Amino acid sequence: MSDLERKRKSGWEKISDDLEKNIYDFANEYMNYLNRAKTEREIVSLSEQIARENGFKSLDEYAELHPGDKVYYVNRGKNLYLAVIGNRSMEEGLNIIGAHADSPRLDLKPNPLVQEGEFAYLKTHYYGGIKKYQWTAIPLALHGVIVKENGEKITVSLGENDDEPVFTITDLLPHLAKEQQQKKLAEAINGENLSIVVGNRPDDSEDEKGKDKVKKNILKLLNKKYGITEDDFMSSELEAVPAFKARTLGLDESLIAGYGQDDKVCVYTSLRAILNIQNSERTAICLFSDKEEIGSMGNTGMESHVFDTFVSELLNKSRINRPNLLDKVFCNSRMLSADVDAGADPLYASVSDHNNAGLIGYGISINKYTGSAGKSNSSDANAEYVAFIRRIFNQNNVQYQLAELGKVDIGGGGTIAYILANKGVDVIDCGVPVLSMHAPYEVTSKYDVYSAYMAYSAFFNN
Ligand code: MN
Ligand code: MN
Questions:
Q1: What is the pLDDT of residues 368-425, one digit of tens each?
Q2: C-alpha to C-alpha distance for 79 and 61, rounded to whole angstroms
Q3: 293 contacts 107 by C-beta, under 8 angstroms
Q4: What tens digit of pLDDT does each residue of 68-120 get?
């Protein structure tokens, strides 16, 4: 008989030596992954490489699919779907885990390069929900692609290695910030002022007599380094991201600090879980979507039908497809929407209902619903499905907690859960609790990261 009263305790209490070693080793592998990929494109290409090393082949390399086959599809370099074909027919449903590879950041504007005073800047338009003041006075790196008119693609990563320059957005010194300091936090930094310093040295060559000599010097350097002209920015996707490395946090080394853990922590843990599948009854799918932070729109966002097309192709190549089968497959499918939860922060305790908050170090967080103000826009999972998830987690010794994102009417948020739920899939949000979510440096617990890996592994095997 189970305990009468719900017991909550830190996952670290009375932990075995073996488990502790597994947790710390896994955390090191995760931090290494974070330090190799900071954008959705980098996550997709690194994960594709890891999947190939583990026996996955691209969909077009298969003429037919059979149980045990490991297959993937990359959508426009920003989306990755991985599948392991199960022994039973896909008609009985899929086990899907979906995370998102994009994270809040500063995107360069289409015509970003300007000179103001003695400085050259790259102007930005922020991506996703950020607190703007957090993005000033920190080191930034530039990642992304520039595609020239002839289709040639130049991949950019600048600011990560010690021998490369970094970038930053300046902020006002406190001595002269009397007026700024009286402003509301949300208004103290103007979005148009999120401009990245890229230079201060004028072009002093004989042929440069006009103004904007600092900008002209930058253009010459860009042309020398990348072979581009100012017009080529128009067809680029360059993202300014924190230049910090992911690191172990705390004297007890129990935590991880790093950029983009929303939602790369769920990307990595679900990727590792699908790589482990040996012989599964149901077909397992791991998907990494894009554009979650700005509403999941567009042809790489979860709202697009590209995922449906991928599953249809699995049915085609398994030689079982027929009219309307896709709808039936979705109605028989289960999903974990693998996205981070707001961890309870004792410094800001008033926003959380402690009894219903994800506690850091207490295991993976399950959100039955998200949304805001009366569960608005939430996909609220059925009790029957929650019971099923509890059962498989308990059977596999996964420590989990049921939580919601903040107190009633304090705020809220959403994930990709509703999009799959609308197709008829049983979906629940299930991810790692995070502190300082959407900040340049986010905090997770090594215990919770490992719990996510255990949870996703258990889900795939049931
Ligand atoms: Mn997220
Ligand atoms: Mn987010």
A1: 998 888 889 889 999 999 999 999 999 999 999 999 999 999 988 889 999 999 999 9
A2: 18
A3: no
A4: 999 999 999 999 999 999 999 999 999 999 999 999 999 999 999 999 999 99
Mean pLDDT, range 434-447, rounded to an integer: 98
> Residue 424, Cβ neighbours under 10 Å: how many?
14
DSSP letter for 349, please.
G
Q: What's the gap between Cα 326 and its chain centre?
A: 27
Ligand approaching nearest to the C-alpha of 104: 2
Q: State which H helix or E strand residue 26 sits in.
A: helix 17-36
| Contact assessment for residue 427 and residue 444, using Cβ atoms and an 8 Å cutoff | no
Could you report the per-residue pLDDT of 246-263, keeping only the tens digit for each?
999 999 999 999 999 999
Domains and CATH numbers, the chain: 17-103+259-460 (3.40.630.10), 105-242 (2.30.250.10)
Ligand 1 mean position, distance from CA 432 (Å): 10
Give me ligand 2 centre to Cα 293, in Å: 5
Euclidean distance between CA atoms 44 and 81, whole angstroms: 9
- Strands 247-249 and 255-258, bridge-based pairing: antiparallel
Q: Are 404 and 354 in contact (CB under 8 A)?
A: no
* pTM > 0.85: yes
CA distance 85 to 283: 5
Distance from the alpha carbon of residue 124 to the mean position of ligand 1, in angstroms: 22
Ligand nearest to the CA of 437: 2
How would residue 277 be classed by pLDDT, with cut points 50, 70 and 90? very high
Q: Write out pLDDT tens, residues 328-380.
A: 999 999 999 999 999 999 999 999 999 999 999 999 999 999 888 888 988 99
Distance between CA atoms of residues 137 and 363, nearest Å: 34
Secondary structure (3-state) at 222 = helix
**Ligand showing the shortest atom-to-Cα distance for residue 340:** 1
